[in-house]
């Protein structure tokens, strides 16, 4: 989910009433990022509380075993919490518990589990996925491919064809509510309610698509630096990551994306009502975030992995109705936070010691009422992000106000003033008055990369064309 798809932020189209209320009565972190903005490495940051150079996943690569000895659910379980995940994990093996007592799994479509032609595949999707097994019990012969949509089809959309209660979003909440019934009432609980949507396929129930399909949806932002023509017709590819997409197709895709978010929002409202029914609403700290965004046509780009705001900037909301953390309700935090900060934040909230391996920081001191806040040390000055992806591999630095990007295979550089230009329309890399800032951020990136195994830095300078890897050697 993109960071800006909240009506409380003034989005001109999308409606998110329940998330708006969580933000209005909680704390909104306006500069939250995913340092490695695709599913696998982002989730490694959540599970371990580590930056990408430590957890080892600096790009997207499946089927690399998850053998981390210390994880967020594992630490909570050891401290007496009843831990449960419902929905997406995206780990390997797919049924790895990662410290949870139990996982009710729906990862969406994972190619390595579905491909029947590979002799090395040890587990097939219909053997590991709980949602598909359940769905086939409701609709014999049903499959995830029935709508004809690819799991990464960013530009093709159509309505969900079955009853709404059979949609994966509803199923995730139904199973989560059932956990409230089945949990050990003598223990506190940790529930990770993990939605696949609004990730593709873009398949909202018809009622939600109807909310948006005839709405005047704004065009994507297009940078001055973005592609002007698409002579090879990449935009006609239904699973494109770039290109000029036919206007009607793109409008429907955006409408479906917004519809999926409102669908999730309403189902979150359903879960919050269930928390009330079980008497746990005021005894529960709620955190809402995403593993990455979706470019959705910005700069004629789609999907994620790139460092632009639509891809790397994510929503991050905390709500504490019981007042346990003394947060400044209705406030917005401007400091840069990252997914690795989730683990130390939740462990601190549960009064559990933070393991030495954790590199994130608890966000609570940023979010407390001003008169109560007493920070032990300054907050991070910047975030280093990256993603290995062939010719499109990037390294980037941001402090929430400025962003420096280096394409490691081509040497292309970009510099954006996010305060004056939040859409990243104007690349200021050659602006004469910005050269001091650019040199500074370039030097920061050099320091971050100077000891990297890829050899990105030599003699204190960035080196173009060094081969990127998705997984660092200590994890391989």
Automatic annotation (TrEMBL):
The keyword Methyltransferase does not apply. Residues 2-351 form the Sulfatase N-terminal domain. GO terms for molecular function: arylsulfatase activity; metal ion binding. InterPro entries: Alkaline_phosphatase_core_sf, Sulfatase_CS, Sulfatase_N. PROSITE patterns: SULFATASE_2 (PS00149). GO terms for cellular component: cytoplasm. This is Arylsulfatase. It comes from Paenibacillus mellifer. The lineage of its organism: Bacteria, Bacillati, Bacillota, Bacilli, Bacillales.
């Amino acid at each position: 989910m993109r960071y800006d798809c909240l009506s409380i932020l003034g989005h001109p189209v999308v409606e998110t009433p329940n998330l708006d209320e969580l933000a209005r009565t909680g704390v909104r972190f306006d500069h939250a990022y995913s340092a490695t903005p695709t599913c696998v490495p982002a989730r490694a940051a959540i599970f371990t509380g580590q930056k990408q150079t430590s957890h080892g996943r600096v790009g997207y690569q499946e089927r690399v075993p998850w053998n981390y000895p210390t994880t967020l659910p594992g630490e909570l379980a050891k401290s007496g919490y009843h831990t449960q995940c419902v929905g997406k994990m995206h780990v390997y093996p797919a049924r790895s518990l990662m410290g949870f007592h139990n996982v009710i799994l729906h990862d969406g479509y994972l190619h390595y589990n579905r491909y029947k032609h590979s002799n090395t595949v040890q587990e097939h999707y219909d053997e590991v996925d709980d949602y598909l097994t359940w769905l086939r019990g409701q609709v014999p012969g049903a499959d995830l491919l029935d709508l004809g949509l690819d799991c990464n089809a960013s530009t093709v959309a159509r309505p969900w064809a079955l009853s709404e209660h059979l949609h994966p979003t509803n199923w995730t909440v139904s199973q989560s509510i059932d956990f409230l019934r089945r949990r050990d009432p003598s223990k506190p609980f940790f529930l990770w309610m993990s939605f696949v949507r609004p990730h593709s396929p873009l398949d909202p129930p018809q009622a939600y698509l109807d909310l948006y399909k005839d709405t005047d949806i704004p065009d994507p932002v297009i940078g001055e630096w973005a592609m002007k023509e698409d002579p090879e017709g990449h935009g006609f590819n239904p699973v494109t990551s770039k290109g000029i997409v036919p206007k009607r197709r793109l409008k429907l895709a955006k409408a479906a994306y917004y519809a999926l978010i409102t669908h999730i929002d309403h189902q979150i409202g359903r879960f919050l009502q269930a928390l009330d029914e079980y008497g746990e609403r005021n005894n529960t700290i709620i955190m809402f975030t995403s593993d990455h965004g979706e470019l959705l046509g910005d700069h004629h780009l789609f999907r994620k992995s790139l460092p632009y705001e639509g891809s790397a900037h994510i929503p991050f909301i905390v709500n504490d109705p019981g007042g346990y953390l003394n947060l400044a309700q209705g406030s917005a935090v401007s400091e840069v936070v990252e997914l690795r900060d989730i683990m130390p934040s939740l462990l601190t909230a549960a009064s559990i010691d933070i393991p030495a391996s954790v590199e994130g920081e608890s966000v609570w001191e940023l979010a407390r009422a001003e008169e109560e806040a007493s920070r032990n040390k300054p907050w991070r000055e910047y975030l280093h992000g990256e993603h290995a992806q062939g010719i499109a591999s990037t390294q980037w630095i941001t402090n929430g106000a400025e962003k420096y990007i280096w394409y490691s295979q081509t040497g292309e550089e970009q510099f954006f003033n996010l305060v004056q230009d939040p859409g990243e329309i104007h690349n200021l890399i050659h602006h004469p008055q910005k050269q001091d800032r650019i040199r500074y951020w370039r030097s920061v990136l050099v320091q971050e990369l100077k000891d990297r195994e890829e050899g990105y830095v030599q003699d204190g300078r960035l080196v173009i064309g060094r081969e990127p890897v998705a997984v660092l050697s200590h994890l391989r």
